[in-house]
């Protein structure tokens, strides 16, 4: 039985590449506006397209049920914007927005000559930290990014891999079970991205 995964649609961008990536990774993805039946889900994905403020406003409408689903055993995967929404707050377009605060800290603007960062960057594990999403992936592999903001407290124990863009070193992979996230887009990162999704799906109860 394929694990059931809710893909929360809060942004305006195309989420169907993450839906097909999850299906290829062995899950049964269902696009939802909000989490209504917390016990129904083995996994919840916060996809990575859209603006922080709009997404956080929509997501707060179902933060309670999302938290209940995690308490009932669902695993969370935040992708790009979705990872950013896991933290306490984010700053985008000069405004302050509030995330789900599942992990402490804020998302900040990258320091670089050219933004957004659109393209492939190397992802390096943080030495000594277990990174289940990167199992079977070579250290220094390239993953695809589209962002201007990131979580930069790479010294925190839940950051298990990092990338650098411009002058900013930032979290590429975050793991604090049942919360997982990637700043890159695994669904747009070829075979190594597919492996990341397979690793996450494998964590879900059957
Ligand atoms: N892909 C995205 O939606 C990017 C997330 C966020 N808007 C950022 O610029 O970092």
Automatic annotation (TrEMBL):
Gene that encodes the chain: hisH
HAMAP family with a match to the protein in the record: HisH
Annotated source species: Pyrodictium occultum
Pfam families: GATase
Superkingdom per UniProt: Archaea
Protein name in UniProt: Imidazole glycerol phosphate synthase subunit HisH
Residue ranges annotated for the Glutamine amidotransferase domain, each copy included: 10-200
Quaternary data: Heterodimer of HisH and HisF.
SUPFAM superfamilies: Class I glutamine amidotransferase-like
Active site: 80, 185, 187
EC number: 4.3.2.10, 3.5.1.2
């Amino acid at each position: 039985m394929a694990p059931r995964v809710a893909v929360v649609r809060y942004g305006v961008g195309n989420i169907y590449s993450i839906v097909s990536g999850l299906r290829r990774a062995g899950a049964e993805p269902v696009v939802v506006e909000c989490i209504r039946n917390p016990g129904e889900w083995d996994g919840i994905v916060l996809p990575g397209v859209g603006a922080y403020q709009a997404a956080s406003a929509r997501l707060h409408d179902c933060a309670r049920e999302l938290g209940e689903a995690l308490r009932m055993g669902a695993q969370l995967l935040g992708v790009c914007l979705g990872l950013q929404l896991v933290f306490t707050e984010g700053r985008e377009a000069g405004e302050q927005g509030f995330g789900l605060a599942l992990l402490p800290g804020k998302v900040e603007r990258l320091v670089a000559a050219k933004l957004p960062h659109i393209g492939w960057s190397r992802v390096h594990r943080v030495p000594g930290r277990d990174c289940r999403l990167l199992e079977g992936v070579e250290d220094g592999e390239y993953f695809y990014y589209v962002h201007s903001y990131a979580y930069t407290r790479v010294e925190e124990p839940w950051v298990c891999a990092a990338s650098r863009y411009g002058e900013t070193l930032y979290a590429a992979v975050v793991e604090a079970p049942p919360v997982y996230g990637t700043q890159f887009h695994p669904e747009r990162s070829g075979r190594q991205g597919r492996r990341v999704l397979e690793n996450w799906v494998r964590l879900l109860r059957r």
